[in-house]
Amino acid sequence: MFIRGKFLLATLVLFLAVESQAHIRLNTPRPRTGTTDGTKSNSGDQDPCGGVARGANPLQLTAGSTINFTWDETINHPGRFLVQFSLQNDQGFSLAQNELLRKEDTQNRGSHNESVRLPNVTCDRCTLRLVQVMSDQPGQLYVQCVDIRLVAATGPTPPPTGGGGGDGGGQSSQGSQEAQKDNKVEMPSGCLFASGMIKGPGSGSGPGASGGLALISLLMPLGLLLFMRRRLLKTPIG
């Protein structure tokens, strides 16, 4: 009789343990407890993660990214599922802005797979929480917490801009300026003329010099004709 009583007591304890931890089973992301069974909690509990302490190795995720939440409902209850966020120290889960997902429980047990967009903030001790709210047992919850760390997204390094970059850029700019100077000739007056134009005195041979000589060759016969015409007009006839 005594042995039978101990057996019944052990069975009752086991039943209560299963009843308090097997309503939801979080598969991904990795839950805080190291196991996947949810913990029964009351809405007024001081510890919003069911008394399970934060671990030393949070899951690192990118702020603003989207992740998958997958879980199983092992015992059906009418109600809903929530995914909530805490910026620090497991506080603020119930704030409206920290509710990342709300899903009505319309099926009898089974698996769930939902996409959840993370807040676009960085934090070192933030937490995600999966909650099963049971409408047939007001105030009773099943919770699973996930330790996370949110880091900023990284992108490609932009190329350097502005002056004063590397040595190659400076040498290229200097070479360009010297090339521009080579294409110009400074006259004694200080004015600059592009090469190919008529050069000043003592500039030597070149396209400008030959062009000037050709112009003089054309003007000299014309001047001689005008001079002879004027002499003929002044000379009396007979």
Describe the structure.
It is a single chain. With 238 residues, this protein is of the alpha+beta class. The chain has a domain at 18-151: Coagulation Factor XIII, Chain A, domain 1 (Distorted Sandwich), CATH 2.70.50.50. Helices cover 27% and strands 31% of the residues. The chain has helices spanning 2-21, 167-182, 207-234, and strands at residues 24-28, 39-42, 59-62, 66-73, 79-86, 99-105, 110-117, 123-134, 140-151, 184-186, 192-194. The strands form 3 sheets. Strands 2, 3, 5, 6, 8 and 9 form a 6-stranded mixed β-sheet that branches. A hairpin with a 5-residue loop joins strand 8 (123-134) and strand 9. The protein is rod-shaped and about 135 Å long. The N and C termini lie far apart (176 Å).
Low-confidence stretches: 6-20, 185-203
Shape: rod-shaped
CATH hierarchy: architecture of the domain at 18-151: Distorted Sandwich
How does the major sheet shape up? 6 strands, mixed
Order of helices and strands: HEEEEEEEEEHEEH
Number of strands: 11
Terminal-residue CA separation: 176 Å
Strand content: 25-35%
What is the CATH topology classification name of the domain at 18-151?
Answer: Coagulation Factor XIII, Chain A, domain 1
Describe, in short, the structure shown:
By secondary structure, the protein is an alpha+beta fold. It has helices at 2-21, 167-182, 207-234; strands spanning 24-28, 39-42, 59-62, 66-73, 79-86, 99-105, 110-117, 123-134, 140-151, 184-186, 192-194.
Labels describing this entry:
single chain; 238 residues; alpha+beta; Coagulation Factor XIII, Chain A, domain 1; three-stranded antiparallel sheet
